[in-house]
Amino acid sequence: MHAAARISLASGEDDEMDDIPFWKTKTLTEMTTPEWESLCDGCGLCCLNKIEEWDSGDVYFTSIRCKLMDGESCRCTSYPNRWDFVPDCVQLTPEKVPELEWLPPTCAYRLVNEGRDLYWWHPLISGDPETVHIARVSARGRTVSENDVDLDDFEDFIVDWPLTVEDDMEASPPAKP
Predict the structure, then answer these.
(1) Helix, strand, coil percent content, the chain, rounded in steps of 5
(2) pLDDT tens digits for 142-162?
(3) Cβ atoms of 61 and 48 closer than 8 Å
(4) Mean predicted lDDT score pLDDT of the chain
(5) Strand residues in the chain grouped as ranges (E)
(6) Are 173 and 121 in contact (CB under 8 A)?
(7) Rounded to whole angstroms, how far apart are CA atoms 61 and 29?
(8) pTM score, two decimals?
(9) How far apart are the C-alpha atoms of 102 and 79, rounded to whole Å?
(10) What is each CA distance from 163 to 56, 87, 144, in whole angstroms?
(11) What confidence category does residue 134 fall into, taking pLDDT thresholds of 50, 70 and 90?
C-alpha cells in the first residue's frame, strides 16, 4: 500500500477506488497544500543554478546549488523565509509548472502535470525519503555551494545529469540483500 494520502469515497462506490493515490485522481490545481508539498521528492535539482543563453533562451543546469540548499539533505535550510535571502527563488505553482521547461524529467510536479505516474523511488511510493538518493536521482554529493564559486566560473560547472532518466531509475527498486 502506498504511503500517500488516499481519497475517501462515499459508501456505495467501488471499493477498488479507495486505494487510488491523490496524484492519480487530482490535477495540480485540485491538490491541498499538504498534497502539493508532498509531491516534492527532495531531489534538490530545482535548486541548482542554471545558465540561460541570452540569444537562444536555452537553459543549462550547473552543479552549483543555491546557497540555502543543504548539500546532504537536498532541502532548503530556510524554506519558509527563502525569499528574504534569495529574492529570485522560483516558487512552483500549478500555473507555473507547465511553463517551466527546465523542470527535470523526473520531477513529480512535471510528471503529474503530464498525466504520468511517479517513479518507484519517490517517497510517496516507497515510503522512504532516502530512496530518491539511493536511486541517484538527487543532487546529493554532486554539488558545490554558490558561495564557493565565482560567478565568472559558473559555465565551468555545466552538467547534464539533472536532465537524464536512466533505465535503472525507471526499473523496480533494487532487491534487498
Answers:
(1) 35, 10, 55
(2) 999 999 999 999 999 999 988
(3) yes
(4) 87
(5) 48-52, 59-65, 144-145, 158-159
(6) yes
(7) 27
(8) 0.82
(9) 21
(10) 18, 25, 18
(11) very high
